[in-house]
Design a protein that fits this description.
4-stranded antiparallel β-sheet; 300 residues; 2 domains; mainly beta; elongated
Length: 300
């Protein structure tokens, strides 16, 4: 009888834990991670934070070079942004220049095509450097170049929302939709309704693989406060009156920033609208390549 009671007790506890687990506050439903939106309905999101990615054509250059022999460096730039990049500067770093000939210190690219929904990322394969030679050293040499590049990047953000009424309530059923493009990611943190205005609080974070840098010194990645331009913020057709928070200007501190904008409301009742935000900034990234230059005559 005692064993039977124990089995019944264990069964009741198991069922209780199951029901409690289903109602835990951290349980997520589909769409919870799509950002801050007001209003019922389904949700969708689309984002790209890739910026410009640098890679090489296969085996150009190889991971092993022979001392004194010429090689081709075929650079491929892939642009995941929805705008052309017209000012990218590439610098070659990290090696003894007396040992390497044929590779300039700096290259400038005029246009990298934009990404589109039809063709995908924009590709620029036009930077081909021929006749790169490693020489004037003894034994094998770890070439291992670093390719740093900087360019003007843009972030575009669009979210469909319900603007609440003067009582901060929303009765409009909308499809929650977020679309953004660019290495800096934007998030709507708060939306508050007042008597005659709407206030929206935004956060900005670096979601790309590089760093925001100063346009005056784009290859200095040690800056503490890195600037960006707030090109514009709209709620529907209304321009926002925007202000940065906690700093002297629109800057990223440890890859994060906050600002808010106020807008005049165009209706006393709740209504469907869109938030549109555009940022501009200088972005820096790099690619490291492991290359060993072998001296076939070493030891003889």
């Amino acid at each position: 009888m005692k064993n039977l009671n124990k089995l019944l007790l264990i069964g009741i506890l198991a069922i209780s834990i199951l029901f409690v687990g289903c109602s835990m506050p951290w349980s997520k439903t589909e769409g919870d991670s799509n950002g801050f939106s007001i209003g019922g309905g389904s949700s969708s999101s689309s984002s790209s934070t890739g910026g410009v990615k640098l890679e090489f054509d296969e085996n150009n250059p190889p991971s092993e070079m022979i001392k004194g022999n010429p090689y081709t460096f075929a650079f491929i730039f892939k642009n995941y942004q929805e705008h052309e990049v017209k000012d990218l500067v590439l610098k070659t770093q990290g090696f003894e220049r007396d040992f390497i000939t044929g590779l300039d210190e700096e290259y400038q690219l005029n246009v990298i095509p934009k990404a589109t929904e039809i063709t995908g990322e924009g590709v620029y394969p036009g930077l081909i450097v021929e006749g790169v030679v490693g020489d004037n050293f003894e034994g094998n040499y770890n070439f291992n170049p670093v390719f740093e590049y900087a360019y003007t990047a843009l972030t575009s953000y669009r979210e469909q929302i319900c603007v609440p009424d003067k009582m901060n309530k929303c009765d409009v059923n909308i499809e929650k939709s977020i679309k953004q493009n660019g290495p800096l990611a934007i998030r709507v943190d708060k939306l508050n309704s007042f008597e005659d205005s709407i206030r929206i609080d935004f956060s900005v974070s670096n979601s790309g693989s590089g760093k925001v840098v100063s346009p005056e010194d784009p290859f200095n990645t040690k800056g503490y406060a890195n600037p960006y331009k707030l090109i514009g913020v709209k709620l529907g057709s209304s321009d926002g009156d925007c202000h940065h928070v906690g700093v002297e200007d629109y800057q990223l501190i440890k890859d994060r920033s906050n600002f808010y904008c106020t807008f005049s409301r165009n209706s006393d009742v709740s209504y469907s609208s869109q938030i549109i935000v555009n940022l501009e900034y200088m972005y820096h990234n790099e690619l490291k390549k492991k290359i060993t230059i072998k001296d076939l005559n070493a030891g003889y």
